[in-house]
Amino acid sequence: MTERGFADVAIEAAHAFRVIMQAMARPGRVLDIGADVRAPAPLLPSAAAVALTLCDFQTPVWLSPQLDDERIVHYLRFHAGAPLVAEPQAAQFIFATSADLPPQLGLLQQGTHDYPDRSATLVIQVAGFVPGAVELSGPGIRGRESFGVVGLDGAFWMAMAENHARFPVGIDVIFAAPGQLAAVPRSTAIRMLESA
Amino acid sequence: MNAPAYNFAYLNEQTKRMIRRAILKAIAIPGYQAPFASREMPMPYGWGTGGVQVTASVLTPEDTLKVIDQGADDTTNAVSIRKFFVKTAGVATTEKTEEASVIQTRHRIPETPLTEDQILVFQVPIPEPLRFLEPRETETRTMHALEEYGVMHVKLYEDIAQYGEIATTYAYPARVAERYVFDPSPIPKFDNPKLDGCPALQLFGAGREKRIYAVPPYTRVKSLDFEDHPFEVQRWDQSCALCGTRESFLDEIVMDDHGTRMFVCSDTDFCAKTRGER
Amino acid sequence: MYVAVKGGEQAIDAAHRLLDEERRGDRSVPSITLEQIAGQLTLAVDRVMNEGSLYDRELAALAIKQARGDLIEAIFLIRAARTTLARFGYAEPLDTQAMRVKRRVSAAFKDIPGGQILGPTFDYTHRLLDFSLAGESEPAEAARAASALRSGMPRVLEMLGSEGLMEQPPPETGEPADLTQDPLNFPAGRDLRLQNLARGDEGFLLALAYSTQRGYGRTHPFAGEIRLGTVEVSFTPEELGFSIVIGEIAVTECEMINQFKGSATVKPQFTRGYGLGFGQCERKVMSMALVDRSLRAGELGEERVAPAQDEEFVLSHSDNVQATGFVEHLKLPHYVDFQAELVLLRRLRAGIESAGDRLEAAE
Is the Cβ pair C337, B170 closer than 8 Å? Predict the structure, then answer.
């Protein structure tokens, strides 16, 4: 039996999208996502809301090993009709947990200089947010914003800094925690903080 | 024959997902024109179909919508678009800038400063700032990819050589976050400074040309200029004949056939607020 | 005291009621029925279905009535309705060789296997107004062939293929692109170009096609075959896994034969231009075939010098719903930008006048 997904697709997807959009527009800001959505564990409802809001038959999806569960696969096929691909490089949306990220972010679809929008969006399931790991600046941020994610270390943020260095090509990242979302697009500059 | 029932905010969910994906990429690459598979809307191309598709994709039932054209809430096309969303999305509407959570506009940015809680959606006829210098999409795409904006500077400088100043008064090109040169839609250059560092998210929809672009909040938007010819906005000798302000963009009203003119705010809500009439 | 004009909403509602009244016309005359439009203004219906990109005679008739006979307005209504329709998938390619033919002519040969079939055509009518149509008179019954015309008539262009004189049809390259699902990007493949032309404005394509005949990118065309008739539409539902016939539609197809002198790698041979449209639309499909061939200039190594050979120019301007929207949007208020231009112009002129004054004072 597949979980039901959004209670009312048009309305809940609209609510979820507003949160996703504001998160992308205000990098590092943690927003509550209250969409009425059910999802099979270990897929978090917040990550499921992102999937059901943005993915469909036009968007190849890759699931990390921890999420590559029969019930989740069936859930995404049933509600989103999204084709699942075997390699993260072939995906437009990548769903992973902080514990099993695809090995090299630079190998995900980066877009081209002619079409930088043809790039992957990485959705990472995380336990929560703790500021202090990195300082973010750039479009969407007034001044600077201190940010950090439980379970993501210096190596990840180094990769994100390299991702920003490739701007305008590169990937965009959405962090999905229980009941919360934040995002760091490629436009965001990243400075490591001493304490990290 | 039965009349069909329409989805919330008219567009079907698959269309919204496609537009929403384009909006996110547009936000992640400020000033870049992201292509999207614009649909035929029940209003003509060139009449706000891009703005309408963007608004339909960001709207929630709890939103309060304001629609303006030329700065005014009661211009016919603004009325028509507002009516469309009342009918298809059932949202509340307002004329008061500070009450609106989503504002769709054609040709103006409201005089009342916007806040973080607001989204401004622009209707865009020609999204490509280089289009009047180079009609071919294949060429302009390469120019953006290579950050090759020399032709634009040459054009602006030719103006200075001929007229002593830059003779572009609206749709004045600007650079977003020090990367993409973009067309802020045909707003008067008077409004360009409001784009810079704006707390609200600004989204731009071009339906016929099938492009969406964005300026995230607090993003640097620098109008193109030269050190010896800095960017300047329009100024009037007159103040608004209705509210007396000297701070707003003024429309010229022809009063009779003897050349009598008067000047009034183009932003009708701002004018009413200044007069204390709302 | 000046009071700003208010009441846009009431004005719009009143305008719509006036429009309804004008549409209805004289109330002592019966209102025109959809059956009359669909059954008697058939070529108008065909054009609206073609450029509206939706095969539905009844909806097209409704659109024509609602648009007061303005076909571009009717096409726009159909396109907007099309946006709201659910999409189940793509049909199998039409097999026009299996067409049940109603009319079929070739200008390239005197006679062809299967025969030249004139069918219902204006071609040899004398364009004299027929005043009997002003009354109620019914036409005489037309004579028809005793036996039904056979389906599966051979294609004229294939008859040349066996000698190697005709270029081979292009190999199938998987799913064709669809500009209603993805934004048009350049360069566009032939599949995308043909889709764009099939939806394109008949007048625009006609003028472009005509321009190639007058030397703006000549293609030396012969009307190889024009056929009109009905074909079956098949669809393979995902859950069935095999194709089923879901209906029959009327189409017109044109295959042009164009001379080609050959290139360094290709021997001289005839090349093809292709046109296909809903219903009876010979002018449209002939124009489409000519423009299709012109747009192949790059592929065939011809110099691209004429408008009809310029893919970006043709494909970006062929859609009359886009074109009419943008041209007519100039009716919308532009007074803010006009004010900005007024301010500039006055200042520029004041600058020139004061410079002139200084010159005069110096003299």
Answer: yes
**Number of domains chain C is built from:** 2
pLDDT of residue C2: 56
CA atoms within 13 A on the CB side of A126: 21
Contact A117 B35 (CB under 8 A): yes
A14 touching chain B per CB within 8 A: yes
Q: What is the mean pLDDT of residues A44-51?
A: 97
> What is the spatial distance between Cα A109 and Cα A124, in angstroms, rounded to a whole number?
16
Q: Is C348 close to B167, i.e. CB distance below 8 A?
A: yes
Print the domain residue range for C188: 96-120+148-168+181-324
Residue C359 in domain: no
What CA–CA distance (Å, rounded) separates C74 from C41? 13
ipTM score of complex = 0.97
Half-sphere exposure of A41 (CA within 13 A, CB side): 1
User: What would the pLDDT profile of C108-128 be if each residue is shown by its tens digit?
Assistant: 988 888 889 999 999 999 999
Look at residue C142 and tell me if it is in a domain. Answer: no
Q: Are residues C163 and C214 in the same domain?
A: yes
How much is the pTM?
0.91
Query: How far apart, in whole angstroms, are the C-alpha atoms of residue C56 and residue C79?
Result: 12
For chain A, the structural domain boundaries read 9-192
In this complex, the residue of B7, B8, B218 whose CB is nearest that of residue A140 is: B218
Angle between helix C42-52 and helix C71-83 axes, rounded to 10 deg: 50
| C27 falls within a domain | yes
The verdict on residue C313 lying in a domain is: yes
pLDDT in tens, B191-232: 999 999 999 999 999 999 999 999 999 999 999 999 999 999
C202 lies in the same domain as C290: yes
The mean pLDDT of C198-221, rounded to a whole number, is: 95
Most confident of B116-120, B153-157, C164-168: B116-120
Task: Please indicate whether, in this complex, the C-beta atoms of C12 and B79 are within 8 angstroms of each other.
Answer: yes
Annotated catalytic sites of B, by residue?
A: 31, 240, 243, 265, 271
What pLDDT sits at residue B37?
93
- Closest-approach residue (CA) in chain C for B78: C8
Its CATH class, for the domain covering A9-192, is alpha beta
How far from the centroid of its chain's Cα atoms is residue C22's Cα? Answer: 28
A165 interface with B at CB cutoff 8 Å: no
Query: In which band, very low, low, confident or very high, does the pLDDT at C84 lie, cut at 50, 70 and 90?
Result: confident
Residues C297, C258 share a domain:
yes
Residues whose CB falls within 8 Å of the CB of residue C29, separated by 6 or more in sequence, listed in order? none
Inter-chain contact B28–A187, Cβ cutoff 8 Å?
Answer: yes
d(CA A44, CA A38): 9
Which of C336, C342, C347, C349 to substitute to test the interface with B, most B CBs within 10 Å? C336
pLDDT band at C354, cuts 50/70/90?
confident
Cβ contacts of residue C231 below 8 Å, gap of 6+? C94, C95, C96, C98, C99, C100, C248, C249, C251
Same domain, C50 and C155: no
Same domain, C100 and C25: no
Please name the residue of chain C whose CA is at the shortest distance from the CA of residue B5.
C84
